[in-house]
Structure formats: C-alpha cells, structure tokens
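Key result, reporting period 2: structure in, sequence out.
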C-alpha cells in the first residue's frame, strides 16, 4: 500500500511541501513582520501592538525559518548553490524546531525577568508555538518531505 498518492508529488518526483508547513514557516517569521509593521502602517493601534510585542532578541528565532524559506523556494534540481540548499533542506525540520524552541525560551525569560507582561498575544504565540513543536516532531509527512530533495537527472546521465 502506497503511503502517498500521485498528487502528493511534484514535477521533480519528490513530495510537495504541505501548505501547513509553508504557513508554519511564515508564522515563524512573524517577528520580522512585527518589526516592519510600524514602518509601513499608519494605523496607531497596529503601531502600538508592534511596539508592545517586538524586541530585537525575538528576531533570532526567525533566522532559521528564513533560511528554511530560502531552501523551500530553491528546492529544485538545478539550484545555483545546490549542495548548500540540499543540506539546509535536510536539516530543515530541526532548524524550524530550534527556532520555535528559541522563541519559547526567549518569551519565557522575558516573562520571568519581568521584561514583558503576560497578555493575550503572548498566550496565543506560546500556544501556537507548542502546536508547532508537536507538529514538527510528530508529523510523518513533514519528516518525509525534509528527507527528499530533487535530484538532477542530467548529472546522473553524464558521469
């Protein structure tokens, strides 16, 4: 019995990246968005929210997600830096996990040190972060997607 259907594979014969994994990666980039919001928004409530939620240290967990996002976009057989992209892809699940765990640690430290107060936004972020950790650890599909990288068939034909 096949684990995945024909539609689950892309034109390079590797599993398609699940939409949830793409959204999860974009979610992990939220502090970059929160950093940019005050610069582009004219709505005072948006600026206030961004100033309340943003600290420079919270940009650190977005770095692994940004690196994985680049490898998602470059997950094709003929990438310019294919060996680097492939290695990042192989570590993608662990990079995302490290980013989300780092975010949980930073938020927890901020709360323990009294730098931030516990509010609804932090509760939502921590809850979603916990769900992300469970998804990344438990999902067989995520494991399988990060285990596959498209091969350049032309390189195999011409030794």
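The corresponding designed sequence is given below.
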């Amino acid at each position: 019995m096949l684990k995945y259907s024909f539609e689950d594979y892309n034109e390079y014969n590797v599993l398609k990246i699940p939409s949830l994994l793409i959204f999860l990666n974009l979610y992990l980039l939220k502090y970059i968005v929160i950093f940019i919001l005050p610069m582009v928004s004219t709505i005072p409530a948006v600026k206030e929210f961004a100033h309340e939620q943003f600290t420079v240290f919270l940009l650190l967990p977005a770095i692994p997600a940004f690196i994985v996002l680049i490898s998602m976009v470059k997950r094709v057989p003929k990438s310019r830096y294919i060996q680097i992209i492939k290695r990042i892809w192989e570590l993608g699940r662990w990079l995302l996990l490290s980013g989300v765990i780092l975010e949980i640690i930073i938020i927890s430290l901020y709360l323990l040190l009294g730098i931030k107060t516990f509010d609804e936004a932090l509760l939502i972020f921590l809850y979603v972060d916990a769900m992300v950790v469970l998804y990344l650890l438990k999902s067989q599909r995520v494991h399988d997607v990060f285990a596959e990288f498209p091969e350049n068939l032309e390189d195999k034909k011409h030794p």
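Residues 92-112 form the longest helix (21 residues). The radius of gyration is 19 Å. This case is discussed further under Risks and Mitigation.
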